[in-house]
């Protein structure tokens, strides 16, 4: 096992539009190795890809085929998820452990093989097993095809900015202790910007990330929230940011001084370097508008105008309040798909499956959970706390292996109550490994309803294998009679990860045009661990071009 003491490696991708050949085969090697990392004045071993935190950026061009050979050199099982990649007919390369594949065991390797079809922009990759994605993550940058311009002013430079969380303790110890106690895990000790938190009170010597910029230039910042459990605000003192893309989908540009970005989401912004010469503070801080503990330490970085004198004081800014619901809501409501002739919003106008899923927490008996007074906090969708199987769902589906899962996931909540009001007296959930079956090419409407059980909070829900349109959103309980009348079916934002607002709901639509088994889960890792997850099984269509490809020969075995 490779191990050496290193300082956190800052990976900053600043590119002058690299020339990449269209429709090429890109090959990468990801060696999963241990490294000793020093942060917050303490050192610990972490799991990394190629010894880097954040991990290496994967560059490709739209329509490229990508081959990533992942080799596991650590004592954990490993899988990698290519978050937001459609994986058309290549579910074997999607990555979530025990959903589409069995893990890569110590000393073994697996080649993820997929083609990037009809996508361009910023996405991310991360580990999809245990809590390893706390340090095993990185950017995916998909450039447009040759000679296809961006639908916004051409930037002079591009910068990848990865936001994350850092624990002084081993994150596997953190979640294992929480599972043992039945309570929530300890929050992180810091947020990071490209691997660095900036100075903090108990470690004032801790360095921060510095972005050097030239006055008069335009920069495209590719923001990625790779944090485990926290939605984040991003802000630069004295500058407005122009939003041009989210989740690898172009949007109608708008200006803001604050970006809200949930775990698993990406946001591309244009930064116009048009202020007076100087240093400007960059802040990353948490958003939480529910009575839930979060890491309230603000990460800081510096935007440095090249040529600024060394002793020039930094121009400061105040991050939004932790519970700045209005700031968050205004940002979300400003997002609209570009919906141009070249990039239309193909929103399904008819609905074949009308689904209503509650998402929230619960309490189940746990006699050994003494800190939890004999109860364990769990999470569920439609009152079902998902149990991971020991055989991957996609393998069980493809090879017709019985007894791994059932297809009776409920289309509606099994128990009707005032979801955002007074909770029921019984807070228990059911356990099971159930999927919901969809016919190929069917139009799906899914309303995700937050609940107030234990506590209402925002759930960033991620759907694998698809992008979807967020056609509606509102507070309280969804009203199926009146709320659809207010749906935006013209230019709703298209995403792969959407925040269900605290004490509210969101409605999405997508076309089930991708055969396979596709994970739906909360991208707060603690909620995924607690069971807020399920899967869709999409049947094959007609003929081989509408059918799941056979598994690769090196697919890991359970």
TrEMBL record:
One of its GO terms (molecular function) is hydroquinone:oxygen oxidoreductase activity. Residues 32-145, 158-307, 409-541 form the Plastocyanin-like domain. Its EC number is 1.10.3.2. It is found in: Secreted, Extracellular space, Apoplast. Binds 4 Cu cations per monomer. Its main location: secreted. Its cofactor is Cu cation. Coiled coil: none annotated. InterPro entries: Cu-oxidase-like_N (IPR011707), Cu-oxidase_2nd (IPR001117), Cu-oxidase_C (IPR011706), Cu-oxidase_fam (IPR045087), Cu_oxidase_CS (IPR033138), Cu_oxidase_Cu_BS (IPR002355), Cupredoxin (IPR008972), CuRO_1_LCC (IPR034288). Residues 1-23 form the signal peptide. GO terms for cellular component: apoplast. Belongs to the multicopper oxidase family. This is Laccase. It comes from Gossypium lobatum.
């Amino acid at each position: 096992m490779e191990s050496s003491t290193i300082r956190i490696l800052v990976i900053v991708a600043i590119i002058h539009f690299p020339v990449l050949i269209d429709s090429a085969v890109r090959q990468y090697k990801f060696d999963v190795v241990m490294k000793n990392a020093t942060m917050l004045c303490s050192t610990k071993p972490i799991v990394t890809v190629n010894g880097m935190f954040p991990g290496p950026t994967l560059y490709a061009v739209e329509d490229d085929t990508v081959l990533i050979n992942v080799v596991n050199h650590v004592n954990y099982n490993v899988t990698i998820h290519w978050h937001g990649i459609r994986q058309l007919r290549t579910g074997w390369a999607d990555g979530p452990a025990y959903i589409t594949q069995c893990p890569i065991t110590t000393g073994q390797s697996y080649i993820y093989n997929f083609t990037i079809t009809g996508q361009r922009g910023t996405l991310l990759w991360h580990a999809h097993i245990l809590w390893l994605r706390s340090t095993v993550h990185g950017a995916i940058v998909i450039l447009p095809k040759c000679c296809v311009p961006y639908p916004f002013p051409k930037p002079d430079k591009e910068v990848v900015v990865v936001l994350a969380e850092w624990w002084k303790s081993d994150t596997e110890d953190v979640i294992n202790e929480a599972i043992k106690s039945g309570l929530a895990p300890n929050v992180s000790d810091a947020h990071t910007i490209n691997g660095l938190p900036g100075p903090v009170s108990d470690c004032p010597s801790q360095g921060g990330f510095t972005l050097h910029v030239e006055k008069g230039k335009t920069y495209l910042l590719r923001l990625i929230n790779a944090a485990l459990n926290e939605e984040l605000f991003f802000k630069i003192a004295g500058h407005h940011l122009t939003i041009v893309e989210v989740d690898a989908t172009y949007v109608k540009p708008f200006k803001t001084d604050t970006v809200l970005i949930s775990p698993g989401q990406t946001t591309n912004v244009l930064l116009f370097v048009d202020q007076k010469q100087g240093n400007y503070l960059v802040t990353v801080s948490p958003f939480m508008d529910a009575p839930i503990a979060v890491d309230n330490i603000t990460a800081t970085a510096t935007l440095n105008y090249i040529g600024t004198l060394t002793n020039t004081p930094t121009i400061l800014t105040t991050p939004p309040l932790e519970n700045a619901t209005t700031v968050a809501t205004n940002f979300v409501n400003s997002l609209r798909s570009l919906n141009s002739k070249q990039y239309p919003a193909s929103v399904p106008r008819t609905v074949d499956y009308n689904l209503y899923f509650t998402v929230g927490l619960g309490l189940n008996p746990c006699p050994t959970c003494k800190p939890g007074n004999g109860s364990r906090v769990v999470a569920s969708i439609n009152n079902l706390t998902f149990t991971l199987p020991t055989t991957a769902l996609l393998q069980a589906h493809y090879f017709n292996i019985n007894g791994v899962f059932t297809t009776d996931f409920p289309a509606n909540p099994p128990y009707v109550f005032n979801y955002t009001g007074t909770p029921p007296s019984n807070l228990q959930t059911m356990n099971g490994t159930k999927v919901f079956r969809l016919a190929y090419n069917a139009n799906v409407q899914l309303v995700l309803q937050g609940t107030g059980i234990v506590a209402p909070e925002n759930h960033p829900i991620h759907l694998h294998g698809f992008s979807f349109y967020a056609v509606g959103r509102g507070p309280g309980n969804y009203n199926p009679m009146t709320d659809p009348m207010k749906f935006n079916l013209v230019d709703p934002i298209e995403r792969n990860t959407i925040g269900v607002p605290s004490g509210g709901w969101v409605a999405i639509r997508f076309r089930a045009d991708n055969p396979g088994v596709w994970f739906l889960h909360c991208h707060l890792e603690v909620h995924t661990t607690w069971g807020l997850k399920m899967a869709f099984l999409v049947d094959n269509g007609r003929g081989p071009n509408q059918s799941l490809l056979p598994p690769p020969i090196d697919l890991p075995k359970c």
